[in-house]
Specification:
It is built from twelve helices and eleven strands. By secondary structure, it is an alpha/beta fold. It folds into two domains: about 180 residues, D-Maltodextrin-Binding Protein, domain 2 (3-Layer(aba) Sandwich), CATH 3.40.190.10; about 120 residues, 3-Layer(aba) Sandwich (D-Maltodextrin-Binding Protein, domain 2), CATH 3.40.190. It has a six-stranded mixed β-sheet. Strands 2-1-3-11-4 form a five-stranded mixed β-sheet. The chain is globular.
C-alpha cells in the first residue's frame, strides 16, 4: 500500500531534525517537511489551514478550536521556553519588583501570543501582579479576531511606532515580548530585566509550583484524522523517536560547541528529570490546565474545556503501545 503523503510545517529544532532530514519517517506516512519561522507558520495555519500537520502556537490553537477550526492536536509539544528573561522594564520608572507593574503601561506582541500569555499568567499567579490594573499595549494584529475580557484595558500601538522605541521614549513602562528586544541586545541603559537573575528566578518558579511553559503543540487536519485515524498514533510515535535520537546525540559532548555542556546536561537532569519535554497528557496536565485557565479568564476562549477535549482521542488511548 502506498504511503500517505502529508505536509508538515515546523521549526528547525534539534528535536525535529530526524523528521526534517528523513532519518525518521512515521509509519505509513511520507512527510514533506517545510521549515519556517513561527510567525509565518502560525499565521498560515490559523488563517488559511494550509498544512496537513503543523507545529502551532498552543494559545492560537485553543482560540481557533474555540471558534471551530478544522484541525485537532496530538499530545506533542516540541517547543517550550521559560519566560522570566523576556520581562523587561524601563529604568527609572518606579519598577523595582514584579508587583510594581500594577497600574503601569506594559507592551505585548499580541494578546494571543503564547509567550505573552504565559508571562501574564506567571506574574499573576506567583508575583502579585493584578492584570486588571495594567494598561496593555499590543504591537501586532491578532491572528484570529476575538473580544478580550471586559476587564482588560487593551490599546494598540500607533501605526509607525514600535514598542521598543516607545519604551525608550518613556511612552511605555515595561514589555513582555516573545523575543529579546533590540534595546536589550544593544545594552541600552534605559532598559533592564525585571528579574536581574532570570535563570535563578525561572528555577525557583519551577520548583515552587510553576511549569516549564509550553509554547507549541502539533495539529493535524480533521479530515485526515477522520479518514485515517491511525495517523495520530503514527505521528506521536515518530515525534517521540526523533526526540529520543536527539537526547542520545546530546549526551555526546562532541555534538556541541559548548565548553561546559556536560555540566549543563547534569544540571538539567537534576531539575527536570530524564525527559523535560514529555509527549503525553499526564505529565503536561497542570501546564495545560494553566493555559486553559489563563485564556478563559482573559476572554480568548468562551468555553472552558477539559484537557482531554483538546487532543485527538484515539492517539491518547493507545499511545503507550507506540512510544
Amino acid at each position: 500500500m502506498a504511503k500517505l503523503q502529508l505536509t508538515l510545517a515546523c521549526g528547525d529544532y534539534d528535536f525535529l531534525r530526524p523528521l526534517i532530514n528523513g532519518e525518521i519517517q512515521p509509519q505509513g506516512i511520507e512527510l514533506n517537511v517545510l521549515t519556517m519561522p513561527s510567525p509565518e507558520r502560525h499565521g498560515r495555519m490559523l488563517k488559511h489551514e494550509e498544512f496537513d500537520v503543523c507545529e502551532l502556537s498552543l494559545v492560537g490553537y485553543l482560540v481557533s478550536r474555540d471558534k471551530g477550526c478544522g484541525y485537532n492536536a496530538i499530545p506533542v509539544f516540541p517547543h517550550r521556553r521559560f519566560r522570566h528573561q523576556y520581562m523587561v522594564k524601563r529604568t527609572g520608572c518606579g519598577i523595582e519588583k514584579p508587583s510594581d507593574l500594577n497600574g503601569k503601561r506594559v507592551a505585548l506582541d499580541t494578546l494571543q501570543n503564547s509567550a505573552g500569555l504565559w508571562m501574564r499568567g506567571i506574574l499573576q499567579d506567583h508575583y502579585g501582579v493584578d492584570l486588571k490594573t495594567v494598561e496593555w499595549w499590543c504591537q501586532e494584529e491578532e491572528d484570529i479576531a476575538f473580544e478580550p475580557a471586559s476587564w482588560m484595558n487593551v490599546k494598540r500601538v500607533p501605526h509607525g511606532k514600535n514598542i521598543d522605541q516607545m519604551l525608550l521614549d518613556g511612552e511605555l513602562d515595561a514589555s513582555l515580548y516573545p523575543e529579546t528586544l533590540p534595546s536589550m541586545r544593544a545594552g541600552n541603559p534605559k532598559v533592564a530585566l525585571l528579574f536581574p537573575d532570570p535563570k535563578k528566578a525561572e528555577i525557583d518558579y519551577y520548583k515552587n509550583g510553576g511549569h516549564f511553559p509550553i509554547m507549541h503543540t502539533v495539529v493535524v487536519k480533521n479530515e485526515i484524522l477522520k479518514e485515517h485515524p491511525w495517523v495520530g498514533i503514527s505521528l506521536v510515535q515518530a515525534f517521540e523517536r526523533a526526540k529520543q535520537i536527539c537526547y542520545t546525540r546530546n549526551s555526546d559532548p562532541r555534538s556541541f560547541a559548548l565548553v561546559w555542556v556536560q555540566d549543563l546536561m547534569r544540571e538539567q537532569k537534576e531539575i527536570f528529570g530524564a525527559d523535560p519535554w514529555p509527549y503525553n497528557l499526564d505529565d503536561n496536565r497542570k501546564a495545560l490546565e494553566a493555559v486553559i485557565r489563563y485564556e478563559f479568564e482573559q476572554g480568548m476562549i468562551k468555553k472552558n474545556p477539559k484537557v482531554e477535549e483538546l487532543f485527538f482521542a484515539p492517539s491518547l488511548e493507545r499511545i503507550q503501545h507506540y512510544v
